[in-house]
Write a structure and sequence with these properties.
The complex is a heterodimer of chains A (337) and B (508). Chain A is an alpha+beta fold. Chain A has 2 domains: 209 residues, D-amino Acid Aminotransferase, Chain A, domain 1, CATH 3.30.470; 86 residues. In chain A, a hairpin with a 4-residue loop joins strand 4 and strand 5. In chain A, helix 7 crosses helix 10. Chain B has 4 domains: 57 residues, no CATH class; 150 residues, Immunoglobulin-like (Sandwich); 71 residues, no CATH class; 166 residues, no CATH class. Chain B is built from 18 helices and 14 strands. Chain B has a 5-stranded antiparallel beta sheet, with no helix packed on it. A 5-stranded antiparallel beta sheet of chain B has the order 11-10-9-7-12. In chain B, helix 10 packs across helix 11, helix 10 crosses helix 15 and helix 11 packs antiparallel against helix 12. Chain B starts with a helix and ends in an 8-residue tail after the last helix. The chains are: A alpha+beta (337), B alpha+beta (508). The interface between A and B is medium-sized, with 42 and 28 residues.
């Protein structure tokens, strides 16, 4: 029964953790390039060099001594985001949208006193949120104003993000992560956010998964999750494709958010992207990885050619769904962006 | 990528095979790690409560004779003075004290190498006198009873006497005489009756207190009768009338009239004779040869290490297997564990505490730690000081447990050792973070996974045959390394992924 299960997964083209680690991450990602993506300060600097928009950095707090001078700097910024440079899974991030007598007002309306805010920064610096518990830096950057396209399927003030997996410069799979009440407004599947697969060809959301169950509607807003066209889809794919040139990583994940004013913005890169995206897309990564390996050499010439090839070959219509699954996005709910 | 790993693994396995073949074929190493063990560890543990000013305890100790060799002895006498006395076939350890308050634990420990195959004393022992309780008339009748076989060979006499003792009528005898004897037999206790009949049959016999050489704890000595049947002693159980088969190993401690335990001015509140098979000594025979061997592999054998370090290496050399299990459980099964080697270190800690106490201890301290950690979160301490507080808490828990354990007499609570506190500290922190980030369920699954791996690993590293095999053939760890390499190249699915990707066709 186990072997049969393995065979069925193999036939569905599912990529397992072991093969991802040994066959793709270890084989394609040089260890020396990891700091480029693990440290958001470095990622942002690189993105800037490559002309990829990312939230504007106001200030980087390097040590405890500079916390005291922060209020003066923040004087000019009503709204901003505080995040650890080496954080993961969205932990340690505070979104500030306003200032009040008592302190800073977060996205959810909570007021954080200055002392608590300073303590949070000190925690970040001491490495509480960092990947290996190493000492960290804190970033103060511009606040994203999410594009209204996902408003109906996002819990309150959460910020949905778009994850693209890029292999050898080719965007091979994508999903949008929608915060829920259960995920505490965080776009993190582990915590209970919804992952909705995106058809690479058309840039439209398809099936969605919530806590490893297939769903068609958002549990909090009850709006259908499928059939929503992602604005600026081509641009997102192009930015994602360039992440490989940027970092030299052969297998990585790129997270974007859609800003209502400036469009897609690169939030962070991930050298060890998770596998749950396969569930959200109801499709195996391995099928697409193999297909990419078989692609003609001229496909890899530049970002544009890679994106074109991906949209033509890795879209929903071409890869198909595993038998028995329900691919139907609900056309009736399509909104005009 | 795949090929060099395979080649390396194959080379390591081949090297192991070559080294083992060399040891077995050229150096004559035993292939089976456990030959029939004949070395025993005797541990006598007495709790003595003084009742008068001069408490005294006399304990029968094993004697060295041709059937048993005492390899080393250790006595713990506390505040008592200890002396040893030989008295005929017996050896007695005597503990004497003056004005001692409270219970004392007195112990005796010996390693006994028994050699049952050796010929025993060639000279026939002397006939012992009739038991004093015997009536002169009964004595005359007993001698008359044994007359029909008195001129036979000792073995025949013994067999006839045993038949009679068991209520039967031996063929040499008429039923009337047998009935008369059985009437006498019923007037005395079974041991005395047996001794009388042996004496009447001219067979030297004596009542003995001692221990069965079988692994376990005995709280009272076994009594039996030794009867000399020409070349050797036969042991018979006077209660059942059975003769112990020769394979039953018995360790005589006290030959009558000396009792196994005697006290004056004191009371024995608890006494235990603990016998365990000591297997490593089996290799001492091998060791004898290895010490003088000119061969390289013999000179660089772990058996050459001083004995106080051998124990450590017996465990250490199995730790790679534990690591292999953890790799398999993580990469093939997909069982989550705290950290990579934490279960291994917990397994090592179980060696001191035992599994059940170990698991309780682990879970207890983890939960207390979690409660405190949740509170600490509100205090907003920085990382390193916060971990230090948890570390202090863990050590505090250990201390309290040890103190409580001491009052309750639970040694396991005190025997936590030095390893586990760091692991528990880190585990508490990880546990808290997993609960915060991935939820309570995930955290408990991880904790359960870690404990399961630790228990399995403990089971493996404390399996003695495996310990010895690896100890004598340390090259086996090359094979373990080979398996680790092969596992490192496993790129198939994990069992847990069947569940995770079931919506993608993982579940049939």
């Amino acid at each position: 029964m186990i072997l049969q299960g393995f065979r069925q997964m193999r036939e569905a083209g599912v990529l397992g953790m072991n093969l991802r680690n040994a066959g793709y991450i270890m084989a394609r990602n040089a260890r020396s390039a990891f700091p480029l993506v693990d440290d958001k300060v470095q990622t942002k600097r690189l993105a800037e060099d490559f002309g990829i928009p990312s939230p504007k950095v106001f200030f980087v707090i390097e040590n405890h001594g500079s916390i005291a001078g922060l209020p003066a700097i923040l004087e000019h910024h009503r709204e901003f985001v505080l995040k650890p440079a080496r954080g993961s899974g969205g932990s340690g991030i505070i979104l500030v949208r306003d200032r009040k007598e008592g302190g800073y007002v977060t996205q959810s309306g909570q007021v954080i006193a200055w002392e608590d805010f300073a303590y949070h920064i000190a925690s970040i610096l001491s490495g509480i949120f960092s990947l290996e518990g190493m000492e960290d830096r804190a970033i103060i950057e511009s606040l994203i104003h999410p594009d209204p396209v996902f408003t109906d399927i996002t819990y309150q003030e959460g910020v949905p993000d778009i994850r693209v997996i890029i292999y050898r410069g080719v965007p091979i799979m994508a999903m949008v992560r929608l915060p829920t009440k259960a995920s505490d407004g965080k776009a993190n599947l582990h915590r209970g956010a919804i992952g909705a697969g995106i058809d690479l060809a058309g840039g439209m959301t398809m099936t969605a998964v919530h806590q490893s169950r297939i769903v068609t509607r958002h549990p909090d807003t009850d709006h259908p999750v499928g059939g929503i066209p992602i604005p600026h889809w081509e641009r997102i794919l192009l930015m994602a494709a360039r992440a490989t040139e940027m970092t030299g990583l052969g297998y990585l994940g790129a997270d974007f958010v859609l800003d209502r004013d400036i469009g897609p913005v690169l939030l962070e890169l991930n050298a060890r992207p998770g596998l749950a995206i396969q569930i959200a897309n109801q499709a195996g990564l391995r099928t697409r990885l193999d297909k990419t390996d078989e692609a003609p050499a001229d496909v890899f010439a530049n970002a544009a050619s890679r994106v074109t090839w991906a949209r033509e070959n890795l879209g929903r219509g071409r890869t198909g769904f595993p038998p028995g699954s329900n691919p139907g996005p609900e056309r009736a709910s399509i909104k005009t962006p | 990528m795949r090929r060099p790993a395979l080649i390396l693994a194959a080379a390591l396995i081949l090297l192991t095979c070559l080294l083992i073949t060399y040891r077995v074929a050229w150096l004559g190493y035993p292939l089976r790690p456990l030959a029939a063990g004949q070395t025993w560890q005797l541990f006598i543990d007495v709790y003595l409560t003084p009742k008068e000013d001069n408490p005294f305890l006399a304990l029968a100790l094993p004697t060295e004779h041709t059937g048993a060799m005492i390899v080393d002895e250790q006595v713990h006498s506390g505040d008592y003075a200890f002396s040893m006395m030989r008295d005929g076939p017996n050896r007695t350890g005597r503990w004497t004290g003056t004005n001692i308050a409270g219970v004392s634990e007195l112990t005796y420990r010996a390693t006994i190498h028994s050699r049952p195959q050796r010929d025993l004393a060639r000279q026939s022992p002397l006939l012992s006198p009739y038991p004093a309780v015997l009536d002169p008339e009964d004595r005359r009748l007993s001698e008359e009873t044994a007359r029909p076989w008195i001129s036979q060979a000792p073995a025949t006499r013994f067999r006839a006497a045993m038949a009679l003792l068991n209520g039967k009528t031996p063929k040499e005898m008429d039923s009337e005489t047998a009935r008369r004897w059985h009437a006498i037999q019923n007037r005395y206790d079974r041991t005395d009756a047996a001794l009388v009949l042996m004496r009447a049959s001219d067979l030297p016999a004596r009542a003995v207190q001692g221990l069965r050489l079988a692994e376990g704890i005995q709280t009272s000595p076994t009594r039996w009768i030794e009867a000399w049947v020409g070349r050797s002693w036969q042991n018979l159980n006077p209660e059942t009338g059975e003769v112990y088969p020769p394979s039953t190993e018995l360790l005589p401690l006290a030959v009558a009239p000396t009792p196994a335990v005697r006290t004056s001015g004191a009371e024995v509140s608890a006494i235990r004779w603990n016998i365990s098979r000591q297997v490593i000594s089996q290799w001492k025979l091998l060791y004898e040869r290895i010490v003088r061997s000119p061969h390289f592999l013999d000179r660089f054998s772990l058996l050459q290490l001083p004995p106080e370090f051998q124990g450590t290496f017996r465990i250490l050399i199995l730790v790679p297997i534990g690591a292999l299990i953890i790799s398999a459980l993580r990469n093939v099964v997909g069982l989550p564990t705290f950290g990579i080697f934490m279960p291994l270190l917990i397994a090592l800690a179980f060696r001191n505490t035992g599994t059940s106490y170990g698991v309780i201890l682990f879970c207890g301290v983890l939960l207390v730690g979690y409660a405190v950690r949740s509170y600490l979160d509100r205090l907003r301490l920085l990382l390193v000081p916060r971990l230090s507080v948890i570390l202090t808490l863990v050590i505090g828990c250990f201390t309290v447990l040890a103190l409580v354990g001491n009052r309750l007499g639970l040694r396991e609570f005190m025997a936590v050792g030095l390893i586990p506190f760091v692991i528990l500290t880190m585990t508490i922190e990880r546990f808290f973070i997993i609960i915060e980030e991935s939820g309570t369920r995930e955290a408990f699954v991880t904790a359960a996974g870690s404990v399961a791996v630790a228990v399995a690993t403990y089971g493996i590293i404390s399996w003695e045959p495996l310990q010895l095999t690896f100890f004598v053939y340390p090259e086996l760890i090359l094979t373990v390394a080979a398996l680790q390499i092969l596992l490192g190249r496993y790129t198939g699915y994990r069992l847990s992924e069947l569940l995770r990707f079931r919506s993608l066709g993982g579940t049939p």
